[in-house]
Design brief:
Elements: H1 2-15, E1 23-33, H2 46-67, E2 73-79, H3 82-90, E3 99-103, E4 113-119, E5 125-131, E6 146-151, E7 154-160, H4 169-189, E8 204-209, E9 228-230, E10 233-235, E11 238-243, E12 247-252, E13 259-261, E14 268-270, E15 274-275, E16 278-279, E17 289-294
Parallel strand pairs: 1-2, 7-8
Antiparallel strand pairs: 1-17, 2-4, 3-4, 5-6, 6-7, 8-11, 9-10, 12-17, 13-14, 15-16
Length: 296
């Protein structure tokens, strides 16, 4: 029955034209989605890599089933290189869709990047670029670039801000947040060349893993548990910031297939792919965030 529903959702997405100007966007840290040919940790075999690819694709189709439409864009964090993205959109059921890839290699010490998949049938890409982060000396930070993708009617920034590890971690995240905020300001006003206050702002959507608590701007903190669980405590470090004439409805996609019992602290937690070198067979230690965008 589930396979039939998924199939029907895909057919609907191809045959029924959009009834409004909404977009469905997914943002997901996919936990060390690495190329088995270049993975220096030695954790990935070809079989494990195929399992990971199929699990990510299955999750995207489960989201399509839940929302009655295929996501127009999927922002991914902790991506090893373009090879893994090519395999994801060419060697899984996603190959039946019209996803294209936006990706650039970043200067991150771990060799992980941000990426964006988008459907050519619903989004027209105008330009894209990697946006470096700079430290207080002006040097490029050895972390993930912010990925910029400008579409007709919407600019998207994909973020994976520096981790909480290290004595300078908070300062690094502050620099990343400031860089992102400046980009949002610039992108939202760059269509108003004369800076006329009556000129409408270009809609900008910044998504990703911010490694700091981010909660819905119009909802209570207790509205949801979180996107990641650390030592028994839920944290919501994945989310969005928006500017311009768009409305964003956010949902954490904590489907049972992405979860497992938390035997140490009770309840459930995301079922991750690895614990150290040990293969657990899950997908990620983060839940995806699903965003319904209206008015772009």
């Amino acid at each position: 029955m589930t396979k039939l529903l998924l199939f029907c959702a895909l057919i609907i997405s191809f045959t029924v034209p959009p009834q409004d100007d909404s977009l469905l966007v997914v943002s997901w840290n996919v936990e060390n989605f690495l190329n088995p040919k270049t993975d220096t940790t030695g954790r990935y075999t070809r079989s494990r890599f195929r399992t990971k690819c199929n699990a990510i694709a299955k999750t995207i189709l489960l989201i399509a089933d839940s929302y009655g439409r295929v996501p127009d864009a999927v922002a991914l964090m902790e991506v090893g290189d373009r090879y893994v993205l090519e395999r994801l959109v060419r060697d899984t059921p996603l190959r039946k869709l019209d996803y294209d890839i936006v990706h650039y290699d970043s200067p991150d010490r771990r060799g992980i990047d941000c990426a964006l998949l988008y459907r050519r049938s619903s989004l027209q890409l105008l330009r894209s670029a990697p946006i470096h982060l700079y430290d207080s000396t002006g040097a490029i930070m050895r972390t993930r670039d912010i990925l910029l993708a400008e579409f007709d009617g919407l600019a998207v920034l994909v973020n994976h801000h520096p981790s909480k590890v290290g004595s300078d971690s908070q300062r690094h995240r502050s620099l990343a947040m400031a860089r992102m905020t400046a980009l949002i300001d610039s992108l939202s006003t760059n269509q108003c060349l004369n800076m006329d206050s009556s000129c409408p702002q270009q809609p900008v959507l910044a998504v990703g893993d911010f490694n700091d608590d981010v909660w819905p701007h119009d909802g209570p903190r207790s509205a949801t548990k979180g996107t990641i669980k650390y030592n028994g405590a839920w944290e919501k470090i994945d989310g969005f910031f928006a500017r311009g004439s768009i409305t964003v409805q956010e949902t954490i996609f904590n489907h049972p297939i992405l979860s497992e019992p938390d035997r140490s602290f009770g309840g459930t937690k995301p079922r991750r792919a690895f614990s150290g070198p040990r293969w657990l067979g899950g997908v990620s230690d983060h839940y995806p965030v699903v965003l319904l965008i209206s008015g772009h």
